[in-house]
Every structure is written in structure tokens, then in C-alpha cells.
Design brief:
The complex is a heterotrimer. Helices cover 64% and strands 1% of the residues of chain A. Chain A is an all-alpha fold. The chains are: A mainly alpha, B mainly alpha, C mainly alpha.
Chain lengths: 339, 240, 202
């Protein structure tokens, strides 16, 4: 790799390296909650994921003849996000393949740190989801004993997504939904813990509220005005407000929506950079992911929706810059406009 | 390496590499031709084999036929706008229709060879008729007949090689078998069976191939340079 | 009146399916060689190429439907199909060429250059072949053909939008150009699977 590129990446690392470090730290409370619900297997899976990410980083440094940067925790953060999106019973090979696909295909092929057009964690998850849907979309019940190495004998189900898809109501209390005490991926069930992590990341200025809030607001509005529950869609919106609000609760707290809002949406190099752009980005991701959830095949439509909208986030930024310039609000210098 | 080869390499390394349509200038890897059937159909060794036979039977005959008929609409080395506007469309139609005519004869042969297996090629078999691999020549200068034959054969070999490699790799990744025989115990990456996986596997394969080509070209140039300098040294010593 | 509404619903329904769920590029890789060249080629305008292809597709669809229906009872229709469809595309291309030649439309010269590239394209032939193998009616074929062209245009715009990232100096040398464009298209195709699943009807 030539010297100028290495220096450019080091500068980027100084600017945004903190985000990935904080995401790695925030995976810890989620992992603790997951270990409380599913035993020690989540810990093993996360360690294997982190190790795989790290080894890929070292391998690529070797191949591209640059010095391995130990401060660069981006691979490890993507690996942890992928691991937390998986069920606790997922095959170790599936997780390793997902991390390798995410890191090598989603990130390194496009030039490494800061150059990827798609969120590498979403890429890795999508590859695993499409290759092994029976492994990735079936979850064990909490408090089931799960053996450490081979979890193929543990009963798994996709009850939540089946219920929502067929127009039913989730028979799970709000507290259970908030703490993740239902069959869900390792790290995406505990909504209250995710909220707390989100608050920390916001305090560290890693999360931009505009994107997250516009995403969640869009999902809320879609779920409220077009609920999936049988019989509600045709009724008056305000007359059946309470059942509709329950639909909103079900939709927001399942399908990794909260987790994606906190851990996937605000990735520094795939999210839009200007304020209006971020609002539009959040709205688009919300609309496309609800569309994928309602009419698509997989429950966690958010990851696939992210890939679609990532392809136009740079265009959103450029259009906004051009608009501001036309309106005369933008000075000629690009740097002042960017965050 | 022969001295004449070394001199050819050093005189014009690009032209030397361009001539080798199998490895150094593979039509798929270096020029991006014929991608659609590769991505969607070459998911198993058998499919790749059937497609290879189809391309072998179609490419050179259609190129020769089109070369003969397109003499009515020749394109010169550096065409101006007028000539392009007049000649491009007729030449394109000649190349595609020649391929369609050759397909009339090739389809029964393929049907006799492969029977119902041919159905797994779907629409990609008749689509070869407009594939740039067979018709790209319409936008280039009119070529003589012997070049049409020789280039047609070399491009066929290059494409068939990549087809078989990709088919076997994708079958092994997606199902753990090669031409139906199990190799290894696991299916490493089932997504390789699908078009999305096909794009990604082909992209990675092309990158690996290009890296190998760069290495090989650097090696050949170095060998050529060393051979010529050793030869010149020996000549100088003999004169002394 | 009801018939008109029904026909419109079928037409637009199939057009939408062709744009999103069965996108020519992302689901069937039709015309992907031309797309990859477009990404690397600054001289050809993506918009014009996509538009030209859309128009050609819309014009070829009804012609090909009639040709296909005429061929349907013939015993040797399988080898004859590409020739008949290529002839239909040829008729449409010649008509487009004549219209462009004798009128003073904007971008005339570029469009004249693009007529053979956009017409004799695996996307156009592939779409009419899909319409025949899935036995679409006339209205369904029209809708699907137009949608296929629009879907190709959308794919062209999406991939040429990614051009900025695909030309970064940081991409490894072996991946620069076509390989990274293929991986980019592959990831977008993967994203579409979230909607359609991964079954492809060839």
C-alpha cells in the first residue's frame, strides 16, 4: 500500500476510531444479558467472532504490506455486531463464515478502513442469512440449556416472526420483550439494554439522533397506520389506537429494529453526513425495512434494507451539498459543510 | 524461452499479452465479456460443461460467417462519426443474426448430446446470440478471415477454461461436490449457488486471476530482459 | 371501464415486479457485461443508455409477443426462437435509427451510436425469452418489458452512483475495475434477496 494511502487511513482512524471502540465496549452489556439468558455459548461465539475479525485484519495487513494497526477495532466491532445478530444456537462455522464475508468482502475488497460503500456487518449477516436461513432465523427459548460446542440438538423456533407474519398478536409481556426473554437473536432482544447502550453512544457523539429518530419514527408510523395484525388494517386509526400501539411495540421490539437503530445505522462511513441527509436516510431505511418485513422473506429486513439504502447515501450527501450551494447557504469550502 | 519470443515481449509487452487469449488476456477476466451465463448458470461443473460445448460450437462459426457477411459494411481503423452512424447498426445486426442462424444448427446437436439436462441452461443458451463474447467485433475494425478463425478459437479456449474453473469452484463451495462426486464434507458457502454469490465469486476469481497475470507478465519481462542481456554479453565476448 | 382498470393494474403490477422483485441485473444478470463497461466508461452517458434501452424494450415487447405466439405451435420453435426475436429487435432498431436520422432530437448523435448497443443487449433478448417461457399474456409482456427496461435503468444508475467508491485508490490493484464492480453488484443482488428470497425462475 502506498504511503499516502496509509497516512490517509491513519488520519481517518484518529477521527472515527472511537466509534468502533465504543461499539465493542457496548457489546459487553448485551453479551452479559445474553449469557444470563442462554448460558456461556454467546460468550464463546463472540470470542470466536472477535478472533476471526482480528486474524482477518492481520492477514490483510500482511497481504497489503502495511503495518497492522492494533488501535483499529473496526473488524472486531463488525464481528461482534454480526455475532449479536445471530441466535445462540448458530453453528460456529456459520458465524466464522459470516464474519469473514463481512470483513473481507464487505470491507477489504473496497479498500479497507473508511472506503466501504456498504455496512460490512450487514453484508456478513446477509451472506449468512441467505446461505443458512434455517440456522440464522431460528432461535432457542431463553433459559434452555445450550451445550457449549455443538448446539444442533437444541429445539429452536421462529415463533415471533411466524406470528407477526400471519397477522397474530405476540403473547409476550412488555417486560419480557424489553429484557429479551423470548426466542430472539443473542443481542437484539434486550431492548432496554440496547436503549442504555444507545444513550451512552449518543453521549459519546457516536450516534446522530437525527438518523436514529427518523428511522424509528418511520417504523412507528408504518406500524401504526398499516399494522400487520389481522382485522386492524381496515379499522379507523384512532378508534383502535391501543391495539395499533401494541402492534407498534411488537414491530419495534422484534426483528432487530432497535439493535440496528443503535449499532448499524450510524456507521460513520455508510451513513449520510449532513443533517437533512441523515433524516432522509433514516426515513428511507425505515420504509424499506418495513417493506421487507411485511412483504419480504426474512424477518430481519433491516440488514438487507441497509444495504439497499447504503448504495445511495453518497448521492444523498452530494445532492444536499448541491442544494445548499444553489441556495447560497454553503461556502465554497467543502470542509465546513461536512461534520 | 526463445530469443525471438524474448524480443517480441520486450518490443511490445502489451501486444504480446493481448495475443494470449487464454491466460494473459482472458476475454472474461480482462475484458468482461460473457458474464451473464457465468454468473447465473455456471453453478455446477455439468452446467458449465454444457455451456462450454455450446460456446465452442457457436463462437467460431458465427464469427466466421459474420466476418464474411460484414464485408458489405466494413469499418475502418479510425472511423469518423458519419461512418460509425452508417455502419454500426448493420454490422451489429449481421453479427447477431449470424449467431442466431448458427444457433439453428447447434441446438439440435446440443439436444442430442444432453437431452433434458439442457433445460437447466434456461434462457441463457439462446441468449448467447446477443452475448458480447460472440458479437463484440461489430464495433471494431473489419478483420480478415484467418484472424476471425484464429481469434475465435483462442477466445473459445479462454472462455471455456474460465467456465469450467468457475463452475467447479461454485459447485464445490455450494454443495461440496465437483461434477457430482463429493470432495470434502461440507458445503462451505451455499450462497455461491445463487446469482448474488456468483457475482461475488466471479469478482474474487477475476481479482486472483488478474494478480496472477500481473505476476506472470512481470516474470516474463524479466526473463526476456535477462535472456537478451545474456545473449548480448555472449555476442560481445565472441567478437573479442 | 372495469376492463381498463384491470388491464392497468396487471400492466403496472408486472412492471413493478420487473423493476424490483425480478430486476434484470440483480436477479438474472441480464446485460451485466454492458453495465460493467458503462461503470468504467466516462464517455457514454448512463442515463441515455438506460433510456434508450427502456424505449427499445417497450417497443420490442409487443412485437416479440406476436412473433412468439405465431411460433408457439411449431415443432422446431426452440432453435427458431432467438432468430425470430433477433429479427424483431432488428426491426425496432432500424425503426429507431430511421426516426433519429430524420428528426432533430436532442443528443441525436449519441443516441444513434447507442441504438445497436442498447438494442442488441442480453437484457432485451433475455426479457422477451422470459416472457415466452413464463407464458405471459400481451398486457403482462408489455408491463414486464417496460418494467425490465426501467429496472435496468435503475440498476445502471445505482451502480454508476457507486462509481465514486469503486474508483478509490485504496482498492487493491487486483480488484480495481471489473472485479470490484462485480462484488458491488453482487452485494446489491444479495440485498434484493431480503425481499424475494433466493429462488430464480430461469
Amino acid at each position: 500500500m502506498d504511503e499516502a494511502l496509509i497516512q490517509e487511513q491513519e488520519q481517518r482512524l484518529k477521527k472515527t476510531g472511537g466509534y468502533y471502540r465504543h461499539v465493542c465496549w457496548m457489546a459487553v452489556p448485551l453479551l452479559c444479558m445474553s449469557c444470563y439468558l442462554y448460558g456461556l455459548r454467546p460468550l464463546l461465539l463472540c470470542c470466536i467472532a472477535v478472533l476471526t475479525g482480528n486474524l482477518c485484519d492481520r492477514l490483510v495487513s500482511l497481504l497489503r504490506r502495511r503495518v497492522y494497526q492494533s488501535k483499529d477495532l473496526s473488524n472486531e466491532s463488525f464481528a461482534l455486531v454480526i455475532a449479536l445478530l445471530m441466535p445462540a444456537t448458530v453453528d460456529i462455522y456459520v458465524l466464522v463464515a459470516a464474519v469473514i464475508a463481512g470483513v473481507l468482502v464487505g470491507k477489504e475488497v473496497f479498500g479497507g478502513y473508511g472506503n466501504y460503500p456498504f455496512n460490512p456487518a450487514a453484508v456478513g449477516y446477509a451472506v449468512a442469512a441467505v446461505s443458512w436461513p434455517e440456522q440464522v432465523f431460528r432461535y432457542p427459548q431463553p433459559y434452555t440449556p445450550i451445550p457449549l460446542w455443538d448446539a444442533s440438538a437444541v429445539p429452536v423456533s421462529s415463533a415471533v416472526s411466524d406470528t407477526l407474519r400471519s397477522g397474530g398478536v405476540l403473547n409476550i409481556s412488555s417486560i419480557a420483550l424489553g429484557l429479551g426473554e423470548y426466542a430472539s437473536p443473542m443481542g437484539t432482544g434486550a431492548a432496554l439494554v440496547i436503549l442504555a447502550c444507545g444513550l451512552f453512544l449518543w453521549a459519546q457523539k457516536d450516534i446522530r439522533l437525527t438518523a436514529t429518530i427518523s428511522f424509528l419514527a418511520t417504523c412507528t408510523l408504518v406500524a401504526f397506520f398499516f399494522p400487520r395484525q389481522a382485522g386492524l388494517a381496515d379499522s379507523m386509526a384512532l378508534a383502535d389506537a391501543l391495539p395499533r400501539l401494541r402492534c407498534v411495540r411488537d414491530e419495534l421490539l422484534s426483528g432487530a429494529v432497535m439493535f440496528s437503530a443503535v449499532f448499524l445505522l450510524n456507521e460513520p462511513y455508510t451513513c449520510a453526513h449532513h443533517r437533512m441527509g441523515r433524516i432522509l436516510y433514516g426515513v428511507l431505511v425505515g420504509l424499506v425495512s418495513m417493506g421487507f418485513r411485511y412483504y419480504g422473506v426474512y424477518e430481519t429486513g433491516v440488514c438487507f434494507a441497509l444495504l439497499v439504502v447504503n448504495s445511495i447515501s453518497a448521492w444523498i450527501d452530494r445532492t444536499e451539498t448541491r442544494l445548499y450551494r444553489m441556495m447560497g447557504r454553503l461556502p465554497a469550502e467543502e470542509k465546513e459543510a461536512a461534520e | 524461452m526463445k530469443k525471438s519470443t524474448a524480443q517480441r515481449i520486450l518490443q511490445d509487452p502489451e501486444k504480446y499479452a493481448h495475443h494470449d487469449r487464454v491466460f494473459l488476456n482472458n476475454p472474461v477476466v480482462m475484458q468482461g465479456m460473457g458474464l451473464a451465463p457465468l454468473v447465473v448458470i455456471a453453478t455446477t461443473g455439468l452446467n458449465a460443461g454444457m455451456l462450454a460445448v455450446a460456446v465452442t460450437l457457436m463462437l467460431t462459426p458465427s464469427r466466421v460467417l459474420a466476418c464474411l457477411v460484414s464485408r458489405l459494411f466494413p469499418l475502418s481503423e479510425d472511423p469518423d462519426k458519419e461512418q460509425l452512424q452508417k455502419m454500426l447498426l448493420p454490422r451489429a445486426l449481421v453479427y447477431s443474426l449470424s449467431a442466431a442462424v448458427v444457433y439453428l444448427a447447434v441446438y439440435p446437436i446440443l439436444n442430442a448430446l444432453f437431452g433434458t439436462n439442457l433445460l437447466s441452461l434456461g434462457i441463457y443458451l439462446p441468449m448467447l446470440v446477443v452475448e458480447p463474447l460472440l458479437t463484440y467485433r461489430f464495433g471494431r475494425v473489419q478483420e480478415p478471415l484467418h484472424k476471425a478463425v484464429s481469434k475465435g478459437v483462442r477466445i473459445t479456449v479462454g472462455y471455456v477454461l474460465l467456465l469450467l474453473v468457475l463452475g467447479c469452484v461454485r459447485e464445490w463451495l455450494a454443495a461440496g461436490t465437483v461434477f457430482g462426486t463429493p470432495v470434502g464434507r461440507y458445503a462451505l458457502l451455499p450462497v455461491a449457488r445463487m446469482p448474488a454469490g456468483g457475482f461475488i465469486v466471479l469478482g474474487v476469481l477475476c481479482a486472483v486471476w488478474r494478480a496472477a497475470v500481473t505476476r506472470r507478465r512481470a516474470y516474463l519481462e524479466k526473463e526476456a530482459r535477462d535472456l537478451i542481456s545474456v545473449h548480448d554479453q555472449k555476442e560481445a565476448e565472441r567478437k573479442e | 371501464m372495469k376492463d381498463v382498470v384491470n388491464t392497468s393494474v396487471v400492466f403496472f403490477g408486472y412492471a413493478l415486479v420487473a423493476i424490483f422483485a425480478q430486476n434484470a441485473i440483480f436477479t438474472r444478470a441480464l446485460g451485466v457485461s454492458r453495465l460493467v463497461h458503462l461503470v468504467g466508461d466516462d464517455r457514454t452517458s448512463s442515463w441515455l443508455f438506460g433510456m434508450q434501452l427502456c424505449i427499445t424494450q417497450a417497443l420490442v415487447a409487443p412485437l416479440a409477443w406476436y412473433a412468439g405466439s405465431w411460433m408457439a405451435p411449431l415443432p422446431f420453435r426452440a432453435p427458431l426462437r432467438p432468430l425470430m426475436y433477433a429479427l424483431c429487435i432488428a426491426v425496432v432498431c432500424i425503426a429507431e435509427h430511421l426516426v433519429l436520422h430524420y428528426t432533430a432530437l436532442p443528443w441525436r448523435d449519441t443516441l444513434l451510436h447507442l441504438v445497436p448497443l442498447a438494442g442488441l443487449n442480453s437484457c432485451v433478448l433475455g426479457t422477451v425469452l422470459v416472457e415466452r417461457t413464463q407464458s405471459f399474456t400481451r398486457v403482462q409482456s408489455l408491463g414486464f418489458g417496460l418494467g425490465s427496461g426501467a429496472g435496468y435503468l435503475l440498476a445502471v444508475l445505482l451502480v454508476t452512483e457507486g462509481r465514486h467508491r469503486l474508483r478509490s485508490r485504496a482498492i487493491p490493484t487486483a480488484f480495481r475495475g471489473m472485479p470490484v464492480a462485480l462484488v458491488y453488484i453482487g452485494i446489491l443482488a444479495l440485498a434484493i434477496y431480503g425481499f424475494t428470497g433466493h429462488s430464480v425462475i430461469l
